[in-house]
Design goal:
Layout lengths: L2 H21 L9 E9 L2 E4 L1 H8 L6 E12 L5 E11 L5 E12 L2 E11 L7
Parallel strand pairs: 1-6
Antiparallel strand pairs: 1-2, 3-4, 4-5, 5-6
């Protein structure tokens, strides 16, 4: 796939993902994942669309993602690798940095997320 294509697909996915996460019923996020997708959320693994949708239905009143940077790469097997860096604002808590990595793969003539890794930018380093 050409650079403009994977760049556009990546940007479109990031916009759709965080728009749904921030503005709609988060259970709908499961529709962006492939049936056997993997999510690692703060080190905890989840497999399958239903498990991922359930995990992402977090009990917050308001969530706002502010994207600072996003990078995209094509993989040698035709997938798209996405890395997102930004801030996450939850309810009345102060904003926190986060990093998220997605892998998109074309399945049945549509792009779906097959892999997702999320980490807050918190450094728990013992003193």
């Amino acid at each position: 796939i050409g650079e403009e294509v994977w760049q556009d697909l990546g940007e479109g996915f990031v916009q759709e993902y965080y728009s749904r996460f921030d503005n709609t019923n988060r259970m709908e996020l499961g529709n962006l994942y492939s049936p056997e997708a993997c999510l690692t959320w703060e080190g905890s693994p989840y497999q399958g669309r239903e498990a991922i949708a359930s995990k992402l239905s977090l009990p917050f009143k308001t969530i706002k993602h502010i994207i600072t940077e996003q990078d995209f790469q094509p993989t040698i097997d035709g997938c798209i690798l996405i890395m997102v860096f930004g801030q996450l604002k939850v309810d009345d808590d102060p904003p926190m940095a986060f990093h998220q990595v997605f892998m998109l793969k074309s399945q049945n003539c549509a792009w779906a997320c097959t892999n997702d890794v999320f980490r807050l930018g918190i450094h728990n380093i013992p003193v």
